[in-house]
Amino acid sequence: MPTPPPEPPPVGHGGSGQPGDPAGPERPDAPGPGRPDPPNGYAVPARLWQTLDRRRPPGADAVADAWRSPVRGPWLTAVLGAVLLATLPLLMVTGLLDWIAYGPRLDQAFPRDVGWLRPPVFDWPTRPAWLFRLTQGLHVTLGIVLVPVVLAKLWSVVPKLFTWPPARSAAQVLERLSLLLLVGGILFETATGLLNVQYAYLFGFDFYTAHWYGAWVFTAALVTHVTIKLPRLVTALRGPGFTGTPVARTRPEPADPDGLVPRRPGPATMSRRGVLALTGSGAALLAVLTVGQSLDGPLRRTALLLPRGRQPGEGPNGFPVNRTAAAAGIDAEQTGDGWRLTLRAAGRTIELDRRALLAMAQHTARLPIACVEGWSTTQTWTGVRLRDLAALAGVPAPDTARVRSLERAGLFNQAALTAGQVLDGDSLLALRVNAVDLSPDHGWPARIVVPALPGVHCTKWVREITFEEADGG
């Protein structure tokens, strides 16, 4: 086996002259590795930065020197940064696609009014039928799996949060501001996203609005930070690798301009390979405990982190449900023999009871339902095609259809469907699932099921459908 390259010698020297010896105090503002000699180390206005450097907060150097791990440095930070740089764009793109899937053209995406931040939108397609299941499942799963990587990256750069002065030039001010927004943004998005998945709304604001604007702040900070730091990342990755070095031979990297290498490194307790292995193992464990929510079969039982991602019961109706009939305020009287489906179109009104719907041509399709919290499931649905109901109402080619539920309150007690969603051959007013009647929790007596449609728009306990023509008829 080839011998791994030796690691560079340690940088800080204490009073004994031994690497990492903290005995001899070193003036924090003295010239040394990674610390330029004033005033050449300051940009305009140099006097401001010098004044800040001289007026150091009490304990600033003690706190900065408390971070002594010799594995910190440009290489480890660059490796973790490269992982995030490869995965975070996917997280942002899937989040944006999920917002588009909610139908901003029909004024039902949240938040609704996004002003100049509104991206180009399109009508969400119905094919492939698993499209929303993929985008939303990937968004939630990837967001959870990346938590250990984010924490490791923050750990690798945490000493920089205590450097003084905070900046030595206007360019560094911009860098530190982008770093503040980057760290704050990713922690905010991660924390609120995890709470939403767990249905723990501990915050006193609307999740959708906060998550949307938080994502844009984070995106702007990420683009700025990458623009500034990409050359350093590439240089660090092109340098000697350290993954093959055992703990006994782990040494700090040479001092770097960013101050990532500790000034007084201590003895190594873990190699860089160990840090990456620990981070990767944590991410893999979270993947195992999460990915089952987006898959049917035995793996669903491994989704221990998801409150509604596992199998909730047995029988044909034994699959996850986001909102029960009791939670929605639906009682047996509303869904009993007196229930009627009302169809409206072009001034016409038709009422159908469940028996009349069952007498119409029935269609069966195996389709997934995917929830915004990340879980999804594929079941076999049977009912009346929406396009047949549109034709019955006298609008064979509707521009939109607006569906209303028996549920009187809540954000999703109604939904709007595009022409493509209404006319798809597998779009159903479902009356049965897996060859049995729908249960009350799954939408009895009738619910909407459309390929690739977000689960919250697959309206349950349907009471009315209005088909609208392009001219508003």
UniProtKB/TrEMBL annotation:
This is Sulfoxide reductase catalytic subunit YedY. Residues 336-470 form the Oxidoreductase molybdopterin-binding domain. Residues 1-44, 244-266 are annotated as: Disordered. Pfam families: Oxidored_molyb. Residues 1-11, 30-39 have a biased composition (Pro residues). Keywords: Membrane, Transmembrane, Transmembrane helix. It comes from Micromonospora coxensis. The chain crosses the membrane at residues 75-102, 179-204, 210-228, 274-292. SUPFAM superfamilies: Oxidoreductase molybdopterin-binding domain. GO terms for molecular function: oxidoreductase activity.
